[in-house]
Amino acid sequence: MLVVETVARIRREFYVKGKSIKEIVRDLRVSRNTVRKVLRSGETDFSYERTVQPLPKLGPWSADLERLLEANERKQRRERLTLVRVYEELQGLGYRGGYDAVRRYATAWQRERSAVTAAAYVPLSFAPGEAYQFDWSHEVVVIAGATTTVKVAHMRLCHSRMFFVRAYPRESQEMVFDAHDRAFAFFGGACQRGIYDNMKTAVDAIFVGRERRYNRRFQQMCGHYLVEPVACTPASGWEKGQVENQVGLVRERFFTPRLRFRSYDELNAWLLDRCTAHAQRAAHPELRDYTVWQVFEAADQPALIAYRGPFDGFHALPAAVSKTLLVRFDYNKYSVHAKAAGRPVEVHAYAERIVIRQDGEVVGEHARRFGRDQTVYDPWHYVPVLERKPGALRNGAPFKDWPLPVALERVRRRLAGHADGDRQMVGILAAVTTDGLDAVEAACAEALAGGTVSRDVVLNVLTRQRQTAAPASIATPEALRLAREPVADCARYDSLRRPYGTSRHPGDDGNAEARRHAPCL
Predict the structure, then answer these.
(1) Residue ranges covered by each domain of the chain
(2) What's the whole-number mean pLDDT along residues 207-222?
């Protein structure tokens, strides 16, 4: 193969120095045909390319190898075989050649296949307020000293490129609802269309083309915010390329190096500030003279559908109440009110809280826990049970470290020394269900101030607090005042009194005046 230095020298010897082909052949020790080829072609570089690869051993097995490679390509990425495994399967069919030949053939086959399947794309353009894109990513952070993989919700407005991110412990449906509500509240409204991948929390079934059967609760959310959902083609991430690129940007700019926070609330507050700060300094990719924030305020935000308030975004599941008034949900247990015992309930799981209902009435509400094997008690749920079993107040699990109000806690400590202190304290706690915690707290404070603390004293104070005050006297208008007001004459009643043992016959007037003044025996 001719090197470029030899080609350049042949051309200089002939065109510059005027040497003949014979002289160039003699001086450079190359063939006459080589010199003629250089001078006639006018090329400055020559390379040899083999037109036909002989493949003496692999040739008869090339069809089988292509069949194995195509079958391997159709498998999921994590299930695909390595080339070594493909080579071993080809050997099982009878191939006796080397691995390098198989590797070279597979590399060429993959190169040709990539050239055939390479696709071109049309850049997309969106009007202000027309559409947003939504997606999830998984990031690693340190929360409360523990390394945690958090699920980050991403939303991006397609026109201005303004984005919103928020971290969650899960990727469940209630988290999707909460992310949308917080994003729309942050933007000040929603777009006409929302572009999603085919996530299971939104899509129940995928049909031909763009047809989808969306989850009922997801449709309710879209109907609340007046958004039309649009699902991408499966395995076609370029249809929501903006949010796909945002995932990489947020991972590089926000989550590198690894973040450390004490709680999810602290992490999300920091992420919200970073979203605003990045938008205020990043140039818009199309309108280079403006930042993302400026385009958002000037064009996107006025075109958004007005924010319609929070959607009641919960995920409902039926549950049973145990004999200890506990409901199991998501590997944890939550207490309910004693009146819910023995009947099924419905758990409404929100992103940050759990609401338990029975026949439409709330019988329990707790902050949501995301660990495992945790039990969350509300001691007030067990107060009706204490009325039958007051001894459970001392060692009952729901009442350990119970943060009672100051006056109630002082009364509890004072009664702990009495023989029936638990029973008296239960009577006081039971009054909370009828009079309210504030009234019982005030009654306990009054009893402590008086120096006498007992159930009867506290309940007596509550009774006096419930007594209504005397109604105020009504001022009589002058127009309704009597000119001659009647005078009460109590002496009339003296006429009814008579001496003991006397009787008055009809028509007998007797000595009425004497009887009027006679003593009553």
Answers:
(1) 4-41, 59-117, 131-306, 315-365, 384-464
(2) 86
Q: Which residue type is seen at 126?
A: F
Band of pLDDT at residue 498, cut at 50, 70 and 90: low
pLDDT confidence of residue 471: 72
The CA-to-CA distance between both ends of the chain, in Å, stands at 154
Distances (CA, A) of 5 to 2, 42, 112: 8, 15, 33
- CA torsion angle for 196, 198, 200, 206 (degrees, to 10)? 130
Instruction: List the single range of 224-228, 410-414, 506-510 with lowest mean pLDDT.
Output: 506-510
Model pLDDT, residue 406: 92
- 239: three-class secondary structure by DSSP: helix
The token duo for 2 is 């001719």
Mean pLDDT over 446-467 rounds to 88
CB 188 within 8 A of CB 164: no
Tell me what pLDDT residue 476 has.
77
Q: Please tell me the distance from the alpha carbon of residue 392 to that of residue 432, in angstroms, as a whole number.
A: 18
Helices 455-466 and 421-430: angle between axes, nearest 10 degrees: 20
Q: Which string of DSSP letters, residue by residue, matches 370-425?
A: -SSS-EE--GGGGHHHHTT-TTHHHH-GGGTT----HHHHHHHHHHTTSTTHHHHH
How many degrees, rounded to 5, is the angle at CA 363 between CA 358 and CA 364?
Answer: 125
Confidence (pLDDT) at 418: 84
Provide the 3-class DSSP secondary structure of residue 258: coil
Tell me the pTM. 0.69
In angstroms, rounded to a whole number, what is the distance separating the alpha carbons of residues 97 and 216? 59
Q: Is the pLDDT of residue 477 over 70?
A: yes
Q: Is the pLDDT of residue 468 over 80?
A: no
Q: What is the CATH number of domain 131-306?
A: 3.30.420.10
Question: Two tokens at 170?
Answer: 């899960």
Angle at the Cα of 128 from the Cα atoms of 123 and 132, rounded to 5 degrees: 70
Among 222, 206, 161, residue whose Cα is nearest residue 187: 161
CA neighbor of 250 nearest in space, from 270, 266, 235, 222: 270
Q: How much of the chain is in helix, strand and coil states, percent to nearest 5?
A: 45, 15, 40
Using the Cα atoms of residue 130, residue 135, residue 140 and residue 141 in order, give the sign of their dihedral: positive
Amino acid at 113: R
As a whole number, mean pLDDT of residues 119-136 equals 86
Please compute, for residue 350, the number of CA atoms within 13 A of its CA located in the half-sphere on the CB side: 14
C-alpha distances (whole Å) from 117 to each of 111, 120, 239, 263, 415 are 10, 10, 17, 46, 82
Query: What is the spatial distance between Cα 264 and Cα 276, in angstroms, rounded to a whole number?
Result: 19
Residue 349, number of CB atoms within 10 A of its CB: 22
- 188: pLDDT strictly greater than 90: yes
Which class for 196: exposed (0-12), middle (13-18), buried (19 or more C-beta within 10 A)?
buried
